[in-house]
């Protein structure tokens, strides 16, 4: 970086030199010589960034989520959120950036991994590093003494991303916390119950939750003779957990022995942290907190991997029926019918072609996993019916009369419960 | 206008002064003083009209000129030695980048996410620096106007379902505007600035707009009059047909194309049953940068009842259009992927819905808890923990107070505050009898339910399906 700055400075000075010589009307050879030097220097700088062709990539350590990946993500979040709601949690959201000073001094050595925003004349900002510090800031700012909340959002760390291991610079955190002064260990127990419910529902394999307590560790190190100064290096976990700590790990089954080490390792963690909110409160008022964080990014990878292994098709839409036409010049009828289905709350699509071939329409259904196709045909129109066909069996499900809303509803209700995709339980 | 330009210049200079002081690490009081002056100046400017929410912006790298104005609103990340990064300004540019990067030729996708603009936030008007955008787009080469019609159908379905009041969707076409200005005699260089004047017709009178165009933007009065003949018109498909017969407009190839497409669009919208919500409005001229064809904007219609309310209920709540040239700007080979889409102004809708709920005095529940597991006497924590766990395992949304010996009154009060409908009370006598008292919080009616029947009873009362879904 310093080299580039020096080079840029040289380019600037040489440019001034050339301009000066031209002004003084120096000899042509001298000017030419100095211009040649200038061009050489500029060449060393490399191509001018502003003239470069647009580079098509996401920033290092980040990724787009394709429809397929979003389907997995949505399913995983659905299971997790259902569990949080089952336990009576509220949900909050906070801005993606915080004042730089809010984050300073909370992450110890990891502070160098924080993304700062450029100083553009306003407040100094940084991207959030986790959801816990914003939570503590939220509690202190609103003078809340108790809340049970979950928060699912992306956080940012200038890590060295090892993509195959599912470590990114932008990734989801999925936190649940109970703040407040309560009778001992009841909320702590509920957090562990939640962790177990979630990991069971996700069906990603057997797991074990390891539990310990910072006070036990400290006491143990003390009686073993470890000096205070060495404590924090011996335990590498985040400083804020000052009492109970928990970590859930997946247990590798013999069947998985050959697989990528994705299916093993920590998938959730948490603990009690009574001192954090007090750091934000102007009067240092403490609000005890206990919580957990689900490692969703790792879980996405595991679920994706399992689905591929099972060769289960992941649907990326929830469309129940395609409105198709068997002959030409039936666009009007298709538009009318699909509109009635939408108005009745049915998930329907049509091809954006005036005269699509029936075969192409059926193929579209197969590729997208759409279970039903409602075919409009000239003869059927005269008879006042629509042919409703199952895409997989190719059998006609029924011929429904023109009174579509009720007719279609009955047929569709049968299929309505279909989830976008199912993923089967891991056989023991 | 000249005053505004002068104010803008002052704001710019004062901003530079502030930055300079910060760089020099001047005293905090001095900085604060100068920042206060800056803020006062900015306040005089009021909200900046040119920074529309739904304008599609070109990426920095491809069209330096147009982006110039808005690039100062982009949040940059500090150069920490790696790639130079910025926070996304909208969802359309990332979408175009995604299509080009993955060489996709067609997709129908929605994307709901936050975007970032270093705007001058006027919080009371619901303008923030971090806010949600809610986009839906159909990319691909298809038969004309079918996807465009579906976008409008979607817009209408959403705005109806939200129940935020009656609305109207204004529709126009970039090619009609271009053609119309051309035949009226507007030079290319004045196109954008005349557009922004014409666009104000929804708020001010034609006289004012004409004065601005002639008096401030140097347009010849005859040209302005000709424009006036067109832009004050709005209507249904009959207006489209009328303009197709217009002797001057029908000579313009672009306008003809636009009118032809709108005619087809109206046919499809009629089949979709939403033609009564659509108005062909020649004064719709906003956010034209990247639209290449049909453009639309949905506005809420203010009812007399709302007259006293905050002007939150008026104005645009959704917008969109066709933009066939954007993806091509990203593709290395310049391959075009035609796109049409819409964006829902959710932040404004949040405000409106919140306002309506408050007016109706409707209580908003923040949890979905169905039953609180309570104890009537002391020393019943174990039983509460066991019962609540059974309920959770059966998929019921339940809570308990984190107290060993809570008072029944406090537990009932908790239910009332949180809106929890049922409370399952464990009592010493009931334990002996093998029952739980199930109470409705609102009606206060109680019934003894056998422990083994409790799950089913709760599910029945809360309308939950009996199987775990």
UniProtKB/TrEMBL annotation, chain A:
- Binding residues for L-histidine: 130-132, 157, 173, 177
Q: Does the keyword ATP-binding apply?
A: yes
Instruction: Supply the alphabetized keyword list.
Output: Aminoacyl-tRNA synthetase, ATP-binding, Coiled coil, Cytoplasm, Ligase, Nucleotide-binding, Phosphoprotein, Protein biosynthesis
Q: Name one GO biological process term.
A: mitochondrial translation
Q: Where is the WHEP-TRS domain?
A: 3-59
The record's GO molecular-function terms, alphabetically, read:
ATP binding; histidine-tRNA ligase activity; identical protein binding; RNA binding
How is this protein named in the record? Histidine--tRNA ligase, cytoplasmic
- Annotated organism of origin: Pan paniscus
From TrEMBL, chain B:
Alphabetic keyword roster: Aminoacyl-tRNA synthetase, ATP-binding, Coiled coil, Cytoplasm, Ligase, Nucleotide-binding, Phosphoprotein, Protein biosynthesis
One Pfam family, short name: HGTP_anticodon
- Can you list the GO cellular component terms from the UniProt entry? cytosol; mitochondrion
Molecular functions per Gene Ontology: ATP binding; histidine-tRNA ligase activity; identical protein binding; RNA binding
Q: Where in the cell is it found?
A: Cytoplasm
Coiled-coil portions: 350-377
**SUPFAM superfamilies, sorted:** Class II aaRS ABD-related, Class II aaRS and biotin synthetases, S15/NS1 RNA-binding domain
One GO BP? mitochondrial translation
Which top class of enzyme applies to this chain? ligase
Q: For this protein, what is the EC number?
A: 6.1.1.21
Magnesium recorded as keyword: no
Q: Where does L-histidine bind?
A: 90-92, 117, 133, 137, 286, 290-291
UniProt xrefs under PROSITE patterns = WHEP_TRS_1, WHEP_TRS_2
Q: The WHEP-TRS domain covers which part of the protein?
A: 3-59
In terms of CDD domains, this protein maps to: HisRS-like_core, HisRS_anticodon, HisRS_RNA
Whether S-adenosyl-L-methionine counts among this entry's keywords is: no
Q: Which reaction does it catalyse?
A: tRNA(His) + L-histidine + ATP = L-histidyl-tRNA(His) + AMP + diphosphate + H(+)
Q: What does this protein do?
A: Catalyzes the ATP-dependent ligation of histidine to the 3'-end of its cognate tRNA, via the formation of an aminoacyl-adenylate intermediate (His-AMP). Plays a role in axon guidance.
Query: Subunit structure of this entry?
Result: Homodimer.
Family named by the database record: Belongs to the class-II aminoacyl-tRNA synthetase family.
UniProt name for this protein:
Histidine--tRNA ligase, cytoplasmic
- What is the species of this protein? Pan paniscus (Pygmy chimpanzee)
């Amino acid at each position: 970086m310093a080299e580039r700055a020096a080079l840029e400075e040289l380019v600037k000075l040489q440019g001034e030199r050339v301009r000066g010589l031209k002004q003084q009307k120096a000899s042509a050879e001298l000017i030419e010589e100095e211009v040649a030097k200038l061009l050489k220097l500029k060449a060393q700088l490399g191509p001018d960034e502003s003239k470069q062709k647009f580079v098509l990539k996401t920033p290092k350590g980040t990724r787009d989520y394709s429809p397929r990946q979003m389907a997995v993500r949505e399913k995983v979040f659905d299971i997790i959120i259902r569990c949080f709601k089952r336990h009576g949690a509220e949900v909050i959201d906070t801005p993606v950036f915080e004042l730089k000073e809010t984050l300073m001094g909370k992450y110890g050595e990891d502070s160098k991994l924080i993304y700062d925003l450029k100083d553009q004349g306003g407040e100094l900002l940084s991207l959030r590093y986790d959801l816990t510090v914003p939570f503590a800031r939220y509690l202190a700012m609103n003078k809340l003494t108790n809340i049970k909340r979950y928060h699912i959002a992306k956080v940012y760390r200038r890590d060295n991303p090892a993509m195959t291991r599912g470590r990114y610079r932008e990734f989801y955190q999925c936190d649940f916390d109970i703040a407040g002064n309560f009778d001992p260990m009841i909320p702590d127990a509920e957090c562990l119950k939640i962790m177990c419910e979630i990991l069971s529902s996700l069906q990603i394999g057997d797991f074990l939750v390891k539990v310990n307590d910072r006070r036990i560790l400290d006491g143990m190190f003390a009686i073993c003779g470890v000096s205070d100064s060495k404590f924090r290096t011996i335990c590498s976990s985040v400083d804020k957990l000052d009492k109970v700590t928990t970590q859930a790990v997946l247990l590798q089954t013999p069947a998985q022995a050959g697989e990528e080490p994705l299916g093993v390792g920590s998938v959730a963690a948490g603990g009690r942290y009574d001192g954090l909110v007090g750091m934000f409160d102007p009067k240092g008022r403490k609000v005890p907190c206990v919580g957990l964080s689900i490692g969703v990014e790792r879980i996405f990878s595991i679920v994706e991997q399992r689905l591929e292994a099972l060769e289960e098709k992941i649907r990326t839409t929830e469309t129940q029926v395609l409105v198709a036409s068997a002959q030409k010049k039936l666009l009007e009828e298709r538009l009318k019918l699909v509109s009635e289905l939408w108005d009745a709350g049915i998930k329907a699509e049509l091809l954006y072609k005036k005269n699509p071939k029936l075969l192409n329409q059926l193929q579209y259904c197969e590729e997208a996993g759409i279970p039903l196709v409602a075919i409009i045909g000239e003869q059927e129109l005269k008879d006042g019916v629509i042919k409703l066909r199952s895409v997989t069996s190719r059998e006609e499900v029924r011929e429904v009369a023109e009174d579509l809303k009720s007719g279609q509803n009955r047929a569709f209700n049968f299929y309505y419960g279909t989830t976008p995709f199912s993923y089967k339980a891991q056989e023991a």
